[in-house]
Amino acid sequence: NAGVMQNPRHLVRRRGQEARLRCSPMKGHSHVYWYRQLPEEGLKFMVYLQKENIIDESGMPKERFSAEFPKEGPSILRIQQVVRGDSAAYFCASSPEKTRTPNTGELFFGEGSRLTVL
Amino acid sequence: AQSVTQLDSQVPVFEEAPVELRCNYSSSVSVYLFWYVQYPNQGLQLLLKYLSGSTLVKGINGFEAEFNKSQTSFHLRKPSVHISDTAEYFCALTSGTYKYIFGTGTRLKVLA
Q: Which of A23, B61, B84, B86 could form a disulfide with A75 if both were Cys (CB 3.0 to 4.6 A apart)?
């Protein structure tokens, strides 16, 4: 499967624990985006990463959330000390190298990771 | 600020009937518009997109959408739905950045 791979698909955590969500972009894609879908809401942009660089994290909560995309391995979205309000579906998307602006390209989405905080 | 509104959270329709899923947007600058579909337990898949040119856009699986600038709408239509079209449909826009603005989604349920 050459699509965007996310794991785990479902994750249950108790309040105060840490959640780690992983995303492997499509082959040949070097741009990764994380979106969050809260219940009854649309997907909202969180962060945009390239290999070893955070390009834009303006949609990330200021505390407890962090993201990385190391030179080797998947992108990781990390949520420390989870609270019930973090329960959501977290989607990763990827896109190929951009050679021009504006960006009108398609985002390729994974199946999402559904986090439930008890 | 930009926004996307999908007023219908759920749309039930009988098989082989036509369907229209509504999407309205707000933006002070030109935008590019998208419809994504999410089948149960799957990721989002692009149905179609409007970038420029003809306002009637055809996508996969027999879907089409019409961009109406004066009404700031981008409604999705299909003349005859199948059971397999049961899914959640998201309208989205971008003004040329990677920050897509998504609507809250419309659940299409096709009834036998």
A: A23
